[in-house]
Amino acid sequence: MTNNLILKTEGLSKSFGGIKALDNVSVDVNKGEVIGIIGPNGSGKTTLFRLIMGIYRPDSGKIIFEGENLTGLPSYRVCQKGIALAHQIPKPFSRLTVMENLLVAALSGGRMTRKSAEEYCQTVLKLTGLYKVKDKLAGSLLPLELKRLEIARALASKPKLILLDEPAAGMREKDVDELLEIIKLINSEGVTVMLVEHRMEVVVKAVERLIALNRGTIVAQGPVKEVMNSKIVSEIYLGRRFREYVGAST
Questions:
Q1: What does the mean pLDDT of the chain come to?
Q2: Do 154 and 168 belong together in one domain?
Q3: Cα(194)–Cα(179) distance, rounded to whole angstroms?
């Protein structure tokens, strides 16, 4: 790996019941960038994230993070190495408070003392706009607050790379603007961001580089405008609505 690379996947493949979910996918992610992953449902986006995170094991291929081969490591070990995943559907501990949820994540990595974890979680609460509800039970939060908590829990482990799986799903336009600001703040703290997202207004404004998947393979990658203007992406993925965003971004 070059000094600028934080993550490299080499020929990742994964099948479920004979169906190829991911086929020979190789991705390079640079330190400090925000990279987007787009594609229709079933294209392999979430599978890629779950392979990187150690939730799934690849049938073949490698996952290299900061020069170390993480292929086959369980997810808790991957988290300890510095990668975190914010799931599309929030999965907090509903009977714990917001702050307690963050502390569980912060202490699970074994890299922080209780005191340093509490201090860091205060920072995460403010960054994600959850400070005012820090003493509420997670099970009592509103849907938008749960989305923020899922991102905050991922951040609490102090990752070097965060994987955001459709964070804007179900959000109103106003909420999307706030999400974009959170992503910007996360990245400004030196955290590399990989973003799976269907909503093009988020993709256009948040990411610097784009990878397009279809049927488990990469069909386009490069600068956002280049990928979004490619014929194969506009035809296969998002049709007229996609082209409207292309026009708005050029």
A1: 91
A2: no
A3: 14
